Amino acid sequence: MSEKPEIKKLEIEVAKLEGVKVKDNELLLIDELVQDYAPEIAHIYDFREDESEEQQIKTGRLHENRILGIILKFYLGGKKKITTTEVEQEYKRYYKEIARSTISTYLNMLKKESTLYKERDGRVVYYIFYEDPPKDIKPFWFTRIFCIVPAYFDRAMYFSKLYLKSELYTQEYIKRTNNGNKQILNKNFKFLTGLIVLNILKNRSSKCVFCQFSKREIYNTLQEAISVAIKDRSDVLPEELLDFLINEYSEIPIFNGINIECQETEKLILENIFKFADNYKKDLEFQIMVSSRRQDIRLKQKEIMEQE
After folding, report:
1. Do 75 and 117 form a contact (C-beta atoms < 8 A)?
2. Any idea what DSSP says for residue 255?
3. Using CA atoms, how far apart are residues 190 and 21, in angstroms rounded to an integer?
């Protein structure tokens, strides 16, 4: 089976962007999860590039869109007052680095437009949304104002940390409940958490398709590739599990996902994942077996194509 030309085109685009790829230690946790859980998309999942940036047009609106997306990420995490330094640090996490003076310029422009307002605390200046971001709004309209990349990658990072610390959480769960097989629970917990992260990445690419600055064809291809990886790992799982656990946890609050900022919410998330990991262990055992076979086949096909 030959590789789709659209995927090949995406791989070429990604290869051009080595300088843009995230090297941040925390964001690399997502990479570690994807390499382990879905290696077939490890080389493309974090594609981030804009048509406007490449062609050097409308870059002013692009920078504003990204800066508002960064402030949105903090807002969703419960932090509503943001400094220029925080925006600068986050900007270079997700995008090609720009000068601090440029960030300051656009923050002040957003203030003049009454999108943000300033608040001083001594010598420190904070920027705050003039109005709360809208909720339950169509992605087409939302992405015209906010870049959603930071919010989705931050959420993916949160669940990647759960995935990578699964053995610790499994031990704590068994100790607390005196219930379950450690090996099975840990395997199922990781499988479900990895599936949540893949859905977060898919949701991100599905919003990027609507962005006025994006390479839409490329993001459509990315969404399709991640969707195939998700289907390979979920097509025999019960609808209840997918609807309650995967869909609810893989979306940001703006689009009706749950808020994950507080410690009590994390306890509930862990409890729910383990509950489903235990209650659906037979379904998960079958799904993991099917998924492993598919993954082996796809990777072998890829190796054969690379040798040709």
Report:
1. no
2. G
3. 25
Domains of the chain, earliest start first? 5-47+148-307 (no CATH), 56-129 (1.10.10.10)
pTM for this predicted structure: 0.90
Residue with tokens 């699964």: 166
H-type alpha helices, the chain: 5-16, 28-37, 51-55, 59-76, 84-94, 100-112, 139-142, 149-164, 166-177, 182-208, 216-232, 239-241, 248-249, 263-279, 281-307
Contact status, residue 70 vs residue 251, Cβ threshold 8 Å: no
Residues 165-186 have pLDDT tens digits of 999 999 999 999 988 899 999 9
Type of residue at 206: S
Give the closest residue to 271 by CA, choosing from 174, 199, 203, 154: 174
Give 107-128 pLDDT, tens digit per residue: 999 999 999 999 999 999 999 9
